[in-house]
């Protein structure tokens, strides 16, 4: 597979002391959906801003389709599409005018642009609102409009910065349908950031977990889960005895944690190991009351690597967006 | 797979027009703001130009002499047969009134003050329109629009020039409105006013507002809130106005102010427009005005564009 994005020691330091992105290295291959996962302030947006030539790296560099993001910024800009974290469409223009504005900036030939703008508006279900001012759009509509704008130049690589932030569940699902569909249709590579773990799990071919500006884990969702050392088997026995030693002695068991009569066991290929454990316990005369085998979720991966649960979901979308705006102002960007 | 993605051919002109059109459209969508901008010079015109009736001080109506003025007393030795000398009061009234007109003519170049200061207001609106529209970049940055534009292949020059063009077009438009209003309110055009003069007026406005908006763009391009550029505008706008000839001719100013006024580009814009509208055209003065304005515009535009270029991307 061909490498389409390559970052080498990419670093951004703000105001000489805030290290937002700290010497990160990664590659993205053609046709994949690559996810950047991390808590607030991890450096996701900063990385996207550097890759999309909005910010200059302090150190290191990256290339997009072989073009250097600093030295060949203009070539880079032609082949990428960007859907920023904030709503950046012009409130005073209509949806259609906004898309056409993007087309003008990209220099998409006028006749093609007109046709494509309508196609895209159709695709993101905004066609009936195309002549309404963006001011009157809801958050989900704006997000979809941003998406359409980011696609007007048929980018080879699409950058999505938290494309579903603050959207309700249905709209999120719908957006992801569009994105999947578009990816097939236009044969794009997608670089996205998110902090919705399920989303990353379901969509991304590969994920990098970033925290405090550093990439701390990197791989496909399954690889990452496997890296935890296998599945989680939970067993509850009737007797008040400590069977930790019995379980630990079984091959493929990695780790056993006891909590009263319940044991949380980390083991490779859980479906196969579980029956062996049951057998061993039965032979010693223990009674098993309950058993479950589960694959680790990305949540557990995240917990393992960052040492904390991802803080999201509970916050209302309004508050997230308000915070964003306040933050943007405070940072002065 | 196909590398035909590069159907994109960002062009300077197209990008320039797209960005400028966007701003003009935003601006036209906001008629209240438009009226507010025009209101200010309109109030000045009403207050100073119409109510403070300077030429009225000297007008014939102000000098009330009886038609016949007897000169009493023994100051005059009467010729034989004449008991009293009588002055022709009407003639004297006329004489004083003419002197008034002469004074007006000599100090202001025209006989009515309204025409004089109305043109000053045209210059004023050019300055305010230019400065305020230069600030729109602050919003663009704050709302993330600027970042998005930077991520497209449109050139930085396009972004900067669209801002300058937008300010200039707005200034020209608002100046036209003020000129038209002044004409309706009684601006007296000189007899040699032709359509060609209008081109000259726009050329002069273009020069000043290009220079001013470039420098203003550089001031606001890094700003993240409106307050800073706003304060700068407030700080400089009044001194700029009162140290120019928009209300009074330089010759009437105190001595220390005269050199400042003679360096103030607003003086040259105002003079150029006056030459082209209400004054009997003095070609050599007009040429000096244009040379000064051009030099000013070029220097400020260069400084402004270079700085904006530098500060556009962090
Ligand atoms: N312009 C700026 N000036 C100073 N510090 C900044 C600036 N932009 C970002 N930072 C800092 O850099 C760090 C990374 O910010 P970034 O926006 O990349 O985070 P993020 O991963 O996108 O977070 P979120 O999930 O909230 O979007 C944060 O600590 C932030 O405060
Ligand atoms: Mg972010």
UniProtKB/TrEMBL annotation, chain A:
Keywords: ATP-binding, Cell membrane, Membrane, Nucleotide-binding, Translocase, Transport. It comes from the Archaea. InterPro entries: AAA+_ATPase, ABC_transporter-like_ATP-bd, ABC_transporter-like_CS, DrrA, DrrA1/2-like_C, P-loop_NTPase. It is found in: Cell membrane. The keyword Endoplasmic reticulum does not apply. It is a peripheral membrane protein. GO terms for molecular function: ATP binding; ATP hydrolysis activity. Residues 5-237 form the ABC transporter domain. Coiled coil: none annotated. Pfam families: ABC_tran, DrrA1-3_C. Belongs to the ABC transporter superfamily. Drug exporter-1 (DrugE1) (TC 3.A.1.105) family. This is ABC transporter ATP-binding protein. The lineage of its organism: Archaea, Thermoproteota.
TrEMBL record, chain B:
The keyword Membrane applies. Residues 80-311 form the ABC transmembrane type-2 domain. GO terms for cellular component: membrane. InterPro entries: ABC2_TM, ABC2_TM_bact-type, Nod_factor_ABC_transporter. It comes from the Archaea. Signal peptide: none annotated. Coiled coil: none annotated. The chain crosses the membrane at residues 32-49, 113-139, 171-189, 195-220, 232-250, 290-312. It is a multi-pass membrane protein. GO terms for molecular function: ABC-type transporter activity. Keywords: Membrane, Transmembrane, Transmembrane helix. It is found in: Membrane. This is Multidrug ABC transporter permease.
């Amino acid at each position: 597979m061909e490498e389409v994005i390559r970052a080498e020691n990419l670093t951004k330091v703000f105001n000489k002391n805030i290290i937002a992105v700290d010497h990160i290295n990664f590659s993205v291959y053609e046709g994949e959906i690559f996810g950047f996962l991390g808590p607030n302030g991890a450096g996701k947006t900063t990385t996207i801003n550097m890759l999309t030539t909005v910010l200059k790296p302090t150190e290191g560099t990256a290339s997009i389709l072989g073009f250097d993001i600093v030295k060949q910024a203009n070539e880079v800009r032609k082949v990428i599409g960007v859907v920023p974290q904030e709503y950046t469409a012009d409130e005073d223009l209509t949806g259609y005018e906004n898309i056409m504005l993007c087309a003008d900036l990209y220099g998409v030939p006028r006749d093609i642009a007109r046709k494509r703008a309508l196609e895209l508006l159709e695709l993101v279900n905004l066609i009936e609102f195309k002549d309404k001012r963006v001011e009157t759009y809801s958050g989900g509509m704006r997000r979809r409009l941003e998406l359409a704008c980011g696609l007007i130049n048929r980018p080879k690589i699409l950058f999505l910065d938290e494309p579903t932030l603050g959207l309700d569940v249905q709209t999120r699902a719908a957006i992801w349908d569009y994105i999947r569909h578009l990816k097939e249709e236009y044969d794009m590579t997608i670089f996205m950031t998110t902090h919705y773990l399920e989303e990353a799990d379901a969509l991304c071919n590969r994920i990098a977990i970033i925290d405090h500006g550093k990439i701390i884990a990197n791989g496909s969702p399954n690889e990452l889960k496997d890296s935890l050392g296998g599945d989680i088997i939970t067993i509850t026995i009737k007797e008040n005895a400590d069977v930790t030693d019995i379980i630990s002695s079984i091959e493929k068991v990695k780790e056993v944690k006891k909590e009263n009569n319940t044991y949380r066991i980390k083991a490779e290929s859980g479906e196969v190991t579980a029956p062996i454990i049951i057998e061993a316990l039965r032979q010693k005369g223990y009674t098993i009351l309950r058993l479950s085998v589960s694959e680790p979720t990305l949540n557990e991966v995240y917990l393992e690597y960052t040492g904390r649960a991802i803080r999201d979901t509970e916050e209302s979308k309004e508050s997230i967006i308000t915070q964003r705006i306040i933050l943007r102002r405070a940072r002065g960007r | 797979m196909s590398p035909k993605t590069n159907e994109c051919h960002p062009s300077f002109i197209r990008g320039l027009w797209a960005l400028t059109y966007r701003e003009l459209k935003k601006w036209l969508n906001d008629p209240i703001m438009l009226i507010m901008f025009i209101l200010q010079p309109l109030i000045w015109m009403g207050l100073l130009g119409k109510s403070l009736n300077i030429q009225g001080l000297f007008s014939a109506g102000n000098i009330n002499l009886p038609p016949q003025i007897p000169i009493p007393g023994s100051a005059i030795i009467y010729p034989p047969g004449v008991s009293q000398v009588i002055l022709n009061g009407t003639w004297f009234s006329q004489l004083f009134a003419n002197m008034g007109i002469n004074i007006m003519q000599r100090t202001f170049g025209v006989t009515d003050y309204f025409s004089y200061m109305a043109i000053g207001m045209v210059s004023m609106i050019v300055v305010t329109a230019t400065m305020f529209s230069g600030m729109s970049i602050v919003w663009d940055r704050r709302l993330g629009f600027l970042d998005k534009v930077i991520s497209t292949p449109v050139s930085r020059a396009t972004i900067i020039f669209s801002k300058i063009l937008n300010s200039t077009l707005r200034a020209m438009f608002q100046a036209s409105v003020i000129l038209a209003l002044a004409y309706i309110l009684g601006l007296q055009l000189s007899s040699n006013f032709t359509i060609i003069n209008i081109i000259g007026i726009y050329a002069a406005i273009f020069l000043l507002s290009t220079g001013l908006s470039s420098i203003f763009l550089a001031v606001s391009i890094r700003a993240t809130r409106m307050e800073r550029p706003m304060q700068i505008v407030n700080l400089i706008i009044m001194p700029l106005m009162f140290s120019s000839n928009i209300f009074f001719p330089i010759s009437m100013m105190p001595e220390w102010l005269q050199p400042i006024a003679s360096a103030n580009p607003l003086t040259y814009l105002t003079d150029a427009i006056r030459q082209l509208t209400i004054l009997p055209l003095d070609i050599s003065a007009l040429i000096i005005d244009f040379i000064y304005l051009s030099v000013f515009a070029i220097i400020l535009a260069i400084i402004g564009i270079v700085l904006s270029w530098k500060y556009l991307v962090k």
